[in-house]
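User: Let's play a game. I give you a shape written as tokens, and you guess the letters that built it. Ready? Here's round one.
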């Protein structure tokens, strides 16, 4: 059945492609954060272990919301590691970094998600796609705040 939600098919496709990049960044950051949760050591162990758990739990919920928005626009959501690697601006972390490096890498990851979300905003705004614009705004706010809190641990 054809989709008739007041957004042109070409605009929905463009937005879905941007959301796919946001999904890939979010899932990659989820995996990285879960890895850090499992492997953090040192004097800040308890704080970071719990914080990383909060972060990956929130990201697990976010990837579902993003994927469902892609589906609502009428396109398949990417869902494989191969697709995520191709679409994500966040690179995998080799080995097990120390706690301070984990924090730094987490900040970089959250900032990458913000940049990806922000790059998608003009397409959503142009197409009057308020639902996607709202989703993007919420993601930007959350990731900017999380990056700020993580940066504060490095001072």
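Assistant: Ready! My guess for every position:
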């Amino acid at each position: 059945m054809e989709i008739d939600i007041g957004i042109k098919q070409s605009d929905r496709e463009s937005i879905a492609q941007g959301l796919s990049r946001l999904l890939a960044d979010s899932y990659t950051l989820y995996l990285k954060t879960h890895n850090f949760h499992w492997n953090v050591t040192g004097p800040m162990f308890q704080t970071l272990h719990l914080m990383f758990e909060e972060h990956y739990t929130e990201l697990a919920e976010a990837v579902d919301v993003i994927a469902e928005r892609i589906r609502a626009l009428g396109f398949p959501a990417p869902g494989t590691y191969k697709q995520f690697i191709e679409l994500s601006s966040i690179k995998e972390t080799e080995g097990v970094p120390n706690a301070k490096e984990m924090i730094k890498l987490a900040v970089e990851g959250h900032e990458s998600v913000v940049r990806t979300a922000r790059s998608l905003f003009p397409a959503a705004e142009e197409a009057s796609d308020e639902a996607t614009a709202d989703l993007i705004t919420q993601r930007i706010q959350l990731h900017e705040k999380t990056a700020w809190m993580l940066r504060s641990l490095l001072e």
